[in-house]
Every structure is written in structure tokens, then in C-alpha cells.
Amino acid sequence: MNPEDYVVLEKEHMSGGMARRPAVIVRGEGARITDASGKEYLDLSGAHGWASVGHCHPEVTRAIAAQAARLVMHTENGYNDQRALWFRDLSAILEREVGSTEKGPLTRIHPCNSGAEAVEGAIKAARYFTGRPGIVAAKRAFHGRTLGALSATWKPHYREPFLPLVPEFHHVPFNDPSVLEEAVTEKTAALLLEVVQGEGGVHPATPEFLDAARRICDERGALLVFDEIQTGMGRTGKWFACGHFQARPDILLLGKALGGGIPMGAVCWRREIGTFEAGRHASTFGGGPLPCAASRAVLEVMEKEDLPGRAARLGAEALERLKKEKPPKVREVRGLGLMIGLELKVKVNPILRALMEKGVWALPAGPTVLRLLPPLVITEDELNRALDVILEVLHG
User: Fold this and answer.
1) CB-CB contact of 49 with 235 (8 Å)
2) How far is CA 161 from CA 14, 16, 172, 221, 271, in A?
3) 374 near 386, Cβ under 8 Å?
4) Which residues lie across from 191 on neighbouring strands?
5) Which of the four, 9, 124, 199, 376, has the lowest number of CB atoms within 10 Å?
6) CB count in 10 Å sphere of residue 26
7) How far apart are CA 353 and CA 356, in angstroms?
8) CB-CB contact of 163 with 196 (8 Å)
């Protein structure tokens, strides 16, 4: 078949929920993706944030192939070797990197299939463990598109066609500590926050905001939930973005990079908070042997190659260069590690098309923000070549 035939075939059957770019992607390796015509792109989107260890990392690919030949799937109604070892490996990293509080370490883990499912699980866990209905989230927040996650998401474009959403959700301005005193009450089950808002424009939280969130949740008996679905797994230069701050969550959410390309999410909460009664919450495919084997390989690669440290170094260099050489079309450069947003004075979509023509695949974060989420394995040469193209296009 010709590349155009695949486009026609998809258009005939697609749901329309996701906009398509005019390229048929058929191969990936490291920080590069290739379309059906043979054109190669530097993937500065990290495959929408999940490809932190790159495309088709050989160790992850080997782990997937080996496990697929043994046992692809078995639900959590039986024990499994890969799931047990994944619990051990992930909880050890969480305990080391996020630490313990009076509620214990983050070693109660519900595995699921995506970041949005992790948000749904956190909403249920917060309501279950507190007996309260209220969820407070932030303006500009993006937490997913399923009904509960969408209720926590802020942007009207995502929400309005599906009203009414789940009740008892409230939104407050991000990075304004003063609003939390009134917003978090004795009816609040959880305060749900991104440590760096991703889809909302790459806005890092301030220490003052997160410190106030932690204090007020403690005072009111609410649970503090950090959505690290995009920021987790080394993206910001730490294993988890909260590692840049003093505040620590009661519940931490993971997804995207966790499975190395195999769909996976996780809800991780403090040990002393408790456990669900059997049957209260479960997932058919969550914590299956194949995704757990893939995720164990991801964790091993990230440890062995120190990808969080690599993200910190390359991200600092990229941010410094972008700020130093800031084109007139750029209003502001912000970010943390290899999570970078360029606030533009122009619409971002024409910029994305121009970058694509020159072999760079990037992302938007709203109508005027160019978002860069390169794989953490990207070489310095690849990153600098991509930045050369980005600066050229933005100077044009």
C-alpha cells in the first residue's frame, strides 16, 4: 500500500476525536521516528510524553518479547511474578525519591492502563478513604478525558460537550496560595494538582503554593494528590517533579513513560492510608505480566543510564540556550528539565507545521505555547540540531 492509502483507510474509520498530522509513522528508534515515505523526524514530543526511554529501547523491547512468549496477561485475581517484582522495584524508587511521612511510604500501588485511569482511581481512593465528596483542582489543569478525569480538567473546550460532569469538583487559580484556605474544607476529599502544568502551558508550581497545599490539606484532613503522569519518570530532572520541592503528596499518579510504550498507569498512596475492600476497585488489564515486565525494564534503564540526571543537564542547557537566543516571536521560555514551554506571540499551529516540514515533531500546549518533551535518551547532537531548527523557524 502507498502512504496515502493508509490515510484514506484511517479517515474512513477513525472516530475523529484526535487530530491527525499528514504523516504515516511506521518506525521509531531512540529520539527519531520515520514515516512511510522514509522521512525521519526528531521526536521532540516524546510520543506525547511517554517515550522517555526512547522508541524501541532494546532492553525494553527484549523484556516485552520475552514476557510475551511466557504469559501476556493475567488479572489481579491471582498472584504473578512480574507484578510482585514490579511492586518491589517501583515502591523502592518511590520510597527513596519521595520519602515517608507519618502516613508511611508510597507503597500501596493500584496498577491500571493509563494516566486517565490513574486519575479516576485517585478520585475513588480519595472519596473512599476520607468519606468525603469534594475534589479541588486547578485552573489550566489537564488530568484526562474520561468522565471523572475530565471533571478535574479545566479547559471548557474539553468539558462543555459532555456536561453535566461528575459533581463536587471545584477549580482554583494555580500558584495562588491564598485561595486554598477557602477552597479546601471539611468536605474536601482531595486537592489534585500537577506539579508542572503540562497541557495548560508548561507552568511549574511555586514552592509557596505547594507548601500551602500541604499545610492546608493536613489541617483539613484532605488528601494531597500530585498528578505526575507527564512530569514523573525523570522528565523534569528528578525521578518525580515533587523532588524539586519540599511538599510531598499523599497520593502520586503515574502513566505515560511508566510502561515504555505499553499502556500503563499507577495510583500510589501512603501505606497507612489503607487498602480498598476487595471488589471496590479493580482493572482487568491493570498490572498484567506484560506491562509489568515492560515497566521493570524501563525502571532498570532509567537507573542504569541515570536518565533523570541526563534530563536535568540537557534541560538546563536547552533552557539556557533558548532564553539566550530568544526570538522576537517568543514571549517567555519556561520549564523544568526536559519539559519546556515556549510562550509565543503568535499561534503555535503554523509553527508546528513548519517544524514538521524541517524534520522536527513537537507539541502544542494551548493555542500559543510550543511544548518540547524529547526522549530523555536524546543525544546532545540531536537536541542541538532540533533547537537549531526551532530557532530558525521562530526567527523566520
Assistant:
1) yes
2) 19, 14, 22, 34, 38
3) yes
4) 136, 224
5) 9
6) 13
7) 5
8) no
Residue 396 pLDDT exceeds 90: no
* pTM for this model (two decimals): 0.97
End-to-end CA distance of the chain: 37
SS (H, E, C) the chain: CCHHHHHHHHHHHCCCCCCCCCCCEEEEEECEEEECCCCEEEECCHHHHCCCCCECCHHHHHHHHHHHCCCCCCCCCCCCHHHHHHHHHHHHHHHHHHCCECCECCCEEEEECCHHHHHHHHHHHHHHHHCCCEEEEECCCCCCCCHHHHHHCCCHHHHHHHCCCCCCEEEECCCCHHHHHHHCCCCEEEEEEECEECCCCCEECCHHHHHHHHHHHHHHCCEEEEECCCCCCCCCCCCCHHHHCCCCCCEEEECHHHHCCCCCEEEEECHHHCCCCCCCCCCCCCCCHHHHHHHHHHHHHHHHCCHHHHHHHHHHHHHHHHHHCCCCCEEEEEEECCEEEEEECCCHHHHHHHHHHCCEECEECCCCEEEECCCCCCCHHHHHHHHHHHHHHHHC
Domains, the chain, in order of start with CATH, read 64-272+283-304 (3.40.640.10)
Which three three-digit cell numbers place residue 343?
Answer: 510562550
Answer whether residue 1 shows pLDDT above 90. Answer: no
Spatial separation of the C-alpha atoms in residues 193 and 213, rounded to whole Å: 9
Number of Cβ within 10 Å of residue 69's Cβ equals 8
Say if CB 70 and CB 277 are below 8 A apart.
no
